[in-house]
Specification:
eight-stranded antiparallel beta barrel, six-stranded antiparallel β-sheet, about 200 residues, mainly beta, 16 strands, globular
Length: about 200
C-alpha cells in the first residue's frame, strides 16, 4: 500500500499530466500482410508469447511477428472502441487482494469481500511524454485511479515480456498497471481488457 502523502503527490502529478491539447496516440493497430485484417492491441502477453488483440469485434491471440504495425488509436478512440464492443477494463492486485471493473461510467470495486459500485468519469491522458494512459475519478472524489503503461514485449529474448506489471496475479502478463485510491486505502495492481463475465 502507499501512504496518503504519496497518494496525494501522485494525484497532483497525474492531474498535471492531463492538461495538454490533444489525446495521446497510445494504442497500436496492426495489419496482417497476407489477409489485410486489422488487429488492435489490448496489452496482454500469453505464456506462449502471443499478444492479445481485438479483431473485427472478437478477442484473439496472435504472434506479433506475423503482423505489421499500421497505425494508432488515441486514448479517446481506443476507449470508445472497447466500450462499444462491450469490453471492460478489469483490475486486480494483492496485499490485500482486491479487484475492480471499469466501464464507461462506473467502477465496480471489491476489497475485503465488500463490493461497491461508484459512478465515475474517465479522463484520457493528453500528453505523449507521460506514461499515464487514463485516469478515472468518482463524482464525490472518494475514488481516484490512474492506469499506466509499464513496458513492452521484448521479442529478441525468447518472446519474454520485460517491465510487465509487477503485481500480476493471472498467468497472462499485462503491460498496464493501475494505482487506485478508495477513501483512505491506496492500492496497486494490473490491468486486463476483456469481455464481461457470463451471467450466472
Amino acid at each position: 500500500m502507499k501512504t496518503p502523502l504519496s497518494s496525494l503527490i501522485l494525484f497532483v502529478l497525474t492531474a498535471l499530466a492531463a492538461i495538454t491539447a490533444t489525446p495521446c496516440q497510445a494504442q497500436e493497430i496492426y495489419t496482417c500482410p497476407r489477409t489485410g485484417k486489422e488487429y488492435l492491441s489490448l496489452g496482454s502477453i500469453s505464456l506462449e508469447g502471443k499478444e492479445k488483440f481485438l479483431e473485427n469485434g472478437e478477442i484473439c491471440w496472435e504472434e506479433r511477428d506475423s503482423l505489421k504495425q499500421s497505425g494508432f488509436l488515441n486514448t479517446v478512440e481506443f476507449l470508445d472502441t472497447i466500450f462499444s464492443q462491450n469490453l471492460q477494463i478489469t483490475m486486480e492486485g494483492y496485499e490485500p487482494f482486491w479487484k475492480a471493473r471499469l466501464t464507461k461510467d462506473s467502477l465496480f470495486f471489491c476489497c475485503y469481500d465488500e463490493p461497491t459500485t461508484y459512478p465515475v468519469r474517465i479522463i484520457p491522458s493528453r500528453t505523449l511524454s507521460s506514461h499515464i494512459y487514463i485516469m478515472f475519478e468518482s463524482q464525490q472524489g472518494r475514488v481516484f485511479g490512474s492506469i499506466d503503461y509499464t513496458g513492452q514485449w521484448n521479442r529478441s529474448d525468447n518472446k519474454e515480456c520485460w517491465q510487465c506489471c509487477e503485481f500480476n496475479i493471472e498467468e497472462n502478463r499485462q503491460l498496464y498497471s493501475v494505482f487506485i485510491t478508495v477513501g483512505d486505502i491506496a492500492l496497486e495492481g494490473c490491468v486486463n481488457i476483456q469481455a464481461p463475465p457470463p451471467l450466472e
